[in-house]
Design brief:
Layout (H helix, E strand, L loop, with lengths): L17 E3 L2 H8 L5 E5 L9 E3 L2 E5 L18 H17 L8 E4 L2 E4 L11 H16 L1 H17 L11 H8 L14 H7 L19 H11 L14
Parallel strand pairs: 2-4
Antiparallel strand pairs: 1-2, 3-4, 5-6
Length: about 240
Amino acid sequence: MLNSDVTWFPLHLRGAKCFEAPEPARHFAEGYGVQNVVFVDDEVKCKRSVRQECNIFINTRCTYWDAMILPPWLCKSPPEAILQRLLHEVAHVALKHPPNKRVVSSIAGLTIQLPSSPWDALRGQEAECWKWVLGLRKANSGKYELLMSAIEGWYLAHTYEHKDWSDLPEAQWAKYNKGTLPPDLWLSVPQWVRDEFRKQAQAEPIESLQRTAAGAVEATSQLVSQSFGFTILFDSRRRCP
């Protein structure tokens, strides 16, 4: 376990349960200018992945990873959700994005300014980062799979306390959503998301999922809002990645 009481840690993560990321993940991130890659497993202190300068801190808890089963992420497992969070923060550094002024870390916790719509998390610099992630998965599948293998190894070896999610996508979806996954996941997201991301998000469907036409954009909007931490100001127990 890493010492989280150091100056380059965000204030809200001081004293959190932190771990060194697997070597392939660190090596990959360093190639894009990242100095430190920290995995965080702390259900109280860590509500989402964050970046502080060239250091990135990845939330490895997957309580609500069902949101990332949806497009454009199309994750098939908790380790893949962790991998995409990692790549997203690497992208911020690689693309030289300035700090997000809507996210403020303090000893009291992480304060997040709510966007007008949860889907706004897929606009602007955030969109650039997710396209970077999806572009890597599409254009360099070998590198993506190598990183995926490293994250899976860490995930299987790590002991989670109070693990409150399922590793199976069907069971995870049923845990927090009514019914089974819709027959076409892309129809569950707004049209502009489909137009913006479908070309980049080339991933194989989850073959074992039993799907019905139950998806609705309104429902998934709420899911994405909760999953990416937008409700944290109102209730820290609500879903976040």
